[in-house]
Amino acid sequence: MKRLFLDMNAAEVLAVVATAACAGAAQRPDSVRPAPVSQAVPPAAGAAADSGRPPYTAADVQFMAGMIGHHAQAVLMAGWAPSHGASGSVRALCERIVVGQRDEIAFLQRWLRERHEAVPPADPRGHVMPGMDHPVLMPGMLTPDEMAQLDSARGPEFDRLFLRDMIRHHQGALTMVQQLLSAQGAAQDGPVFKFAADVNADQSTEIDRMSRMLDALASRAQRP
Q1: Taking CA atoms, which of 39, 74, 98, 195 is between 20 and 30 Å from 106?
Q2: Beta bridge partners of residue 136, listed in sequence order
Q3: How far from the centroid of its chain's Cα atoms is residue 25's Cα?
Q4: Is residue 51 part of a domain?
Q5: Closest CA to 107 of 10, 199, 205
């Protein structure tokens, strides 16, 4: 998916994202539908520079920085699978989440660093910046009590809680993408826009997969 977006222009990317979101929404219950994607298309390359405006906005910085803590919590949750008796299918899903989101955290931190913006740590408690009294939970993130509950679970109960919580976690990421695309002048920077498109498409797909896994788990639990 990421290779595909690198070879497409912004308008084509948004068309793919919107199509994927609509198709996915038609196949899943209301509780797991992604936030709708904005139909606004970024201007042609160079437009921001020609107008004298910077190629990125405060909303871009907030999105990229906030996604670091969001991803860090997902990596921690998924990293518990081997030690918490997760099933083979859940462990395979968790391995993909750990690898993919660790790579994306590195990208997010590099994007901020290259633009001389503050780079928050990959803190699973939430978004942390100098001067903050406590971490800020981004949309969909688990509270400390919810993380403790997941950490205490084992076997099928871990699978159930993990799938339920990670669906909500991914829905939060979709909300963050929608907030970004709704902000005036945001997502004009090519890497920001393509990363947001990847998040929307990839996590919508994973929500569908996890919803099916959760349904199957519930069906097995109901058998005599």
Answers
A1: 39
A2: 127
A3: 17
A4: no
A5: 199
- Determine the Cα–Cα distance for residues 38 and 97; give it in Å rounded to an integer: 26
In a domain, 64, yes or no: yes
Q: Is residue 33 part of a domain?
A: no
Domain span at residue 183?
A: 2-6+59-222
Cα–Cα dist 99/111, whole Å: 19
Contact 201, 1 (CB under 8 A): yes
Q: Which residues of 96-125 are buried (b: 16+ CB within 10 A; e: fewer)?
A: ebbebbbebbebbbebbeeeeeebbebebb
**What's CA 113's distance to the chain center, in Å?**
20
Here the CATH number for the domain that contains residue 204 is 1.20.1260.10
- What is the Cα–Cα distance from 166 to 112, expressed in whole angstroms? 26
pLDDT digits (tens, 9 = 90+) for 154-180: 999 999 999 999 999 999 999 999 999
pLDDT band at 54 (very low <50, low <70, confident <90, very high): low
pLDDT band (50, 70, 90) for residue 224: low
Q: 117 and 57 in contact (C-beta within 8 Å)?
A: no
With cut-offs at 50, 70 and 90, classify the pLDDT of residue 104. Answer: very high
SS3 call for 136: strand
Which uninterrupted H or E stretch holds 186? none
Q: Is residue 27 part of a domain?
A: no
